[in-house]
């Protein structure tokens, strides 16, 4: 970044977003620094963008265009590219004027990238048609995703989603937890597509961990709309791990931004466990201060592995609140149910009898219906 201009106002200027005097100051700075792009940290209207382009003399884009550009660079899967393109089309549509606009007229670089670096001459009608097609394709993929989700629900393996501000360390944690190799980079929005991995804990019990797109302050509404099917994964999770960059100077603002997005996608009622990452970078005094302020939080270093055992124990404790220990009598011809029980819960004791196996097992309460046919002899504890 070559330079920065800040203005505090009671209200936005309808012509330029910022005041005319600040526009002139910005224009002089651009000339002195020989800059070629100006990025506004708020969304500009089409009229404001046109006026600023003419007044400053270089390309002017807003926060939303920049974020869409970053998303476009990191969209690798077919669904991810569709979602980013839909967000870009929804952003472009109200900015069209007259009979059309040639996207290539905007030039290359920040704020102009799209999946495949497309440069098309489009008009409003073509964009509306494209938006309709993209929505249909995404809806079809959503149906497929729902089928996969229902299969997982049928097995009732707990799903734990890693959420948090972008670059808070979610992918690093997923890699450590599940011995996976998800791409990790010190950049914004590296992860766009949900990545699900499994891990056995506590003697064979299975948990599914899902890495999700990072959140950000003032997340563009176009992205929330386009990624709604992806974010649905968050809503359907049994537990949300809110991964927090405890070393970031704006940690509190990032926490608030994530909580706001959770409200926007109606996932704020889920069970949420706050996980403070990167404690290896903090002095002991600061860690103690955080523990006092957030007594229910978990404090880890995903990079070094500090506190991971505590995190797993907390997860199991939360899951076990909704479990029950029962004794089942399973005929030998039905022993295939044992694999289901091993995957779903924790078998604590097995006794081989003449006609059946007596199993003492800890399972989720919602799974009781599945094993009713095995004659639950006794509920040990609720």
Quick description:
The chain is of the alpha/beta class. It has twelve helices and 14 strands.
Estimate nothing, just give the exact number of structural domains.
3
Q: How is the biggest beta sheet arranged?
A: 6 strands, mixed
Q: What is the structural class? A: alpha/beta
Strand content: 15-25%
CATH fold group of the largest domain? Rossmann fold
**SSE topology string:** HEHEHHEEHEHEEHHEHEHEHEHEEE
Number of strands: 14
**Which whole number gives the mean pLDDT?**
81
Radius of gyration: 26 Å
**Total helical segments:** 12
Shape verdict: elongated
By CATH, the superfamily of the largest domain comes out as P-loop containing nucleotide triphosphate hydrolases
What does this molecule look like?
- The protein is α/β, with parallel strands linked by helices and 382 residues long.
- The protein is built from twelve helices and 14 strands.
- It has a six-stranded mixed sheet with strand order 6-7-5-8-9-10, sandwiched between helices.
- Residues 98-108 and 115-120 have low confidence and may be disordered.
Ordered list of secondary-structure elements with their pairings:
Elements: H1 20-33, E1 37-40, H2 46-56, E2 59-62, H3 63-74, H4 78-92, E3 101-102, E4 121-122, H5 124-155, E5 159-164, H6 170-178, E6 195-201, E7 205-211, H7 221-226, H8 228-235, E8 239-245, H9 251-264, E9 271-277, H10 284-293, E10 298-299, H11 308-320, E11 323-331, H12 337-344, E12 346-352, E13 356-364, E14 378-381
Parallel strand pairs: 1-2, 5-7, 5-8, 8-9, 9-10
Antiparallel strand pairs: 3-4, 6-7, 11-13, 11-14, 12-13
Helix pairs in contact: 3-4, 4-5
């Amino acid at each position: 970044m070559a330079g920065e201009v800040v203005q505090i106002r009671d209200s936005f200027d309808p012509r330029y977003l910022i005041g005319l005097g600040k526009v002139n100051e910005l224009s002089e700075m651009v000339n002195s620094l020989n800059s070629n792009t100006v990025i506004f940290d708020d969304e500009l209207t089409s009229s404001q963008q046109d006026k600023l382009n003419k007044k400053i003399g270089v390309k002017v884009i807003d926060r939303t265009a920049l974020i869409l550009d970053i998303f476009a660079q990191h969209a690798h899967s077919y669904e991810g590219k569709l979602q980013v393109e839909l967000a870009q089309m929804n952003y472009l549509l109200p900015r069209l004027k007259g009979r059309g606009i040639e996207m290539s007229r905007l030039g290359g670089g920040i704020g102009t990238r799209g999946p495949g670096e497309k440069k098309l001459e489009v008009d409003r009608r073509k964009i509306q048609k494209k938006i309709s097609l993209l929505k249909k394709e995404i809806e079809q993929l959503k149906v497929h995703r729902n089928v996969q989700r229902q299969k997982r629900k049928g097995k009732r393996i707990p799903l734990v989603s890693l959420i948090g501000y972008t670059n808070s360390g979610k992918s690093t944690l997923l890699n450590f937890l599940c011995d996976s190799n998800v791409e990790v980079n010190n950049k914004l929005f590296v992860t766009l597509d949900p990545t699900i991995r499994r891990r056995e804990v506590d003697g064979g019990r299975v948990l599914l961990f899902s890495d999700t797109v990072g959140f950000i302050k003032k997340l563009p509404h176009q992205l929330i709309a386009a990624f709604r099917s992806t974010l649905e994964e968050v809503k359907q999770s049994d537990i949300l791990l809110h991964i927090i960059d405890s070393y970031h100077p704006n940690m509190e603002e990032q926490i608030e931004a994530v909580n706001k997005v959770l409200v926007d996608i109606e996932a704020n009622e889920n069970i949420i466990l706050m996980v403070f990452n990167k404690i290896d970078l903090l002095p002991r005094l600061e860690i103690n201060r955080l523990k006092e302020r957030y007594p229910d939080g978990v404090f880890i270093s995903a990079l070094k592995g500090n506190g991971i055992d505590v995190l797993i124990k907390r997860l199991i404790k939360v899951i076990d609140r909704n479990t029950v220990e029962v004794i089942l009598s399973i005929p030998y011809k039905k022993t295939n149910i044992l694999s289901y029980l091993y995957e779903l819960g924790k078998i604590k004791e097995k006794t081989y009898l003449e006609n059946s196996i007596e199993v003492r097992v800890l399972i989720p309460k919602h799974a009781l219906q599945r094993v009713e046919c095995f004659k639950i002899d006794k509920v040990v504890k609720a």
